[in-house]
Amino acid sequence: MNLNQLKYFSEAVKYRSISTAARENFVTQSTFSTAITNLEDELSVKLLNRGVQGVTPTCVGEQVFYKVHDLLMLLEDIRILTSQSSKAVSLRIASLPSLIDTLLADTILYLEAKNHDLMLDIISDDSEGVQAKIQGGHSDIGVIFTDGFPIFPGLAYEPLFASRYVLFVGKHHPMYCKEELTIEEALSLKHVTYKNEYVKEYDLLTHLTRSYGKPKISLCVDNNESMHRIISRSDYVAFFPEFVTRHDAYIESGNISMLNVSNADLNLQIGVVYSKKYGSKEKISSFIEILKCVLIEEEYL
């Protein structure tokens, strides 16, 4: 038995798929699968139920998963304690790109101005992916959008502020000079989306537009800058939270216009999620208070 076998098993349970877990960990599927099979052989017990829909832990496998999770978290704590690279307190944060570019960027500047010794390790994902990272112990705290869809089991949620979705259109789009449009008009346009928006069950836009139908999705990208460039130079459009327009260079330069949606409730809430069981509660509480200070100073509220 070795740590890689235990980690691969834990990741397979988390993603409910060996192929997905292997891809997320940059390992071949055969290597991943063989490691888990060898672990089962060594323990003389079946840990995973395998099927066409993915994998689920057996009764014994579920108990082993929690033990392995505790072990991996303990090893991570040891790694942090013994790290000689920095004396600063570190916090692993997962968040959406639009929040990283705005609220978290403002938070970094705030920490520098206050000479704070908190070091942030930030990674981007969608809201479902952020929650999975917190649940799996890969991040300490997440900053996400939510409005009505469930928070993952074992996680706590604390709201920060509210916003709403607006539609971004480029200067070459026929709708550019309008101030508002209906949800039906918005959904009929050609959309560029971030990753799996409108596909995942826990995606906020999927939840918000469920009553009106999905938009015409023509292109998916994995970062905000690409979305902005595409919108500014073509007839693609996309929904964005209104708060991101505060420092948006494309909006300020006039290359992109923001349109209100007149007949749909596209409100959203921004908040933080963290594990109820793992992580430093003092460190997490301190960071939440810092976020609240930034919200006031930068006038998000």
TrEMBL record:
InterPro entries: HTH-type_LysR_regulators, LysR_HTH_N, LysR_subst-bd, WH-like_DNA-bd_sf, WH_DNA-bd_sf. GO terms for molecular function: DNA binding; DNA-binding transcription factor activity. Transmembrane segments: none annotated. It comes from the Bacteria. Residues 1-58 form the HTH lysR-type domain. Coiled coil: none annotated. Keywords: DNA-binding, Transcription, Transcription regulation. Pfam families: HTH_1, LysR_substrate. GO terms for cellular component: cytosol. Belongs to the LysR transcriptional regulatory family. This is DNA-binding transcriptional regulator, LysR family. It comes from Peptococcus niger.
